[in-house]
From TrEMBL:
Record-stated family: Belongs to the folylpolyglutamate synthase family.
GO molecular-function terms, A-Z: ATP binding; dihydrofolate synthase activity; metal ion binding; tetrahydrofolylpolyglutamate synthase activity
Pfam families for the chain: Mur_ligase_M
Phylogenetic placement of the source organism: Bacteria, Bacillati, Bacillota, Bacilli, Lactobacillales
Keywords associated with the record: ATP-binding, Ligase, Magnesium, Metal-binding, Nucleotide-binding
Name of this protein: Mur ligase central domain-containing protein
Listed InterPro entries: Folylpolyglutamate_synth, Folylpolyglutamate_synth_CS, Mur-like_cat_sf, Mur_ligase_C_dom_sf, Mur_ligase_cen
Amino acid sequence: MIENENEAVEWIHSLTKAGKRAKHDTQERLLNLLEKIGHPEKKLPAIIHVTGTNGKGSVSRFSQAILTASGYRTGLFVSPFIIKFNERIEIDGKYISDDDLLKYTRIVFENYTDQTEFEVITAIAILYFSESHLDALVVEVGIGGLWDSTNVLDATVAVITSVGLDHMDILGDTLAKIAFQKVGIVKPSTKALVYGRIPNEAKDVIEARAKELKIPYGQIDSKLPLSRGYYQRYNAALAWAAVKLYLHETAKADHFLKIIDSWPQDKLIKFLNYVSWPARMEKISKDPLIILDGAHNIQGIATLNDSLLKEYGDREQLIVFGHLKKKNISVASFSDLPLATVFPVNWQAYKETAESSSYKEWHWQLDDLLREIDPKKQMIVVTGSLYFVSQARAYLKAKLAKSN
């Protein structure tokens, strides 16, 4: 028996099964588990389902925040976590409590057969949400869409934030193949599909699927002028569009109009500027200026570069970069930044490269930069794998706390 929340998390993490992630049988395994625990997925409210190569976490977070502020008791399921495991499952901005995490993990544990880690986490979230009297639910896809564990759920509004070359070993090696996987969250029961700025090759696949199912669709290429994170302006606009469509489909006409009228653009922008999301253009220090961003693939780094140029183009960016080797990104990925100096650090990429001697231990590198930085002219940017950025975030937060 699992005795406490730490043992619950340890058991969940022990379930990683190489070769079973995002394959066609993932939903069969998960549905078998959900059947054993009473089909909680049938007790959920209408869902905003969000996928995309980049931006899906931010769009999910913005959507949940707007719905909560509009008076809806709103669940949010996201991945991965940055600070604490519980943040993957939350209601109205509050993480699942340790007691509830233990309670629902025990139920899943008692009915477990052969599910993977992510399938188990998805089951725990579904069970928790099903008993929490929600008005709305926002769910972020893990990987892809079509065969993702979260696709046992039916989207009322489907959102595709972006399509880029990532997870190609699972989703396919072309934009068209990846787009096909992502548009898999759109089903005959879906009421609307919105998507962000995506390449034509992917757009054609997405629109063809929507037309086949006769699902209303549209591209959101506008932006809300937030004061932080240039690329978040597009994510915010996409979230606002998704929420409006969701309310239109689920609320009575008078209630829908009341909510929409209460969100003039200046109020919406002011509100979204205060929505926090760790490791997404997160400013953890002003003096010296330190930004954290989990740009872990080609598209993500390109977006980060664009934001740094637009917002901090007059500063020298000292970029601490730790990434997974399989992501096909490198120091050269930051070549668009004329004032950047990139410091690749020991995390995982160095393990399989002949250049390992050029990779410094990441905490030593951060220590050196903190000692030597000129706060008036330079800034520190920590980026790469979200797992690396989460470790660096905790380390920097502790050091900054001691120095204040």
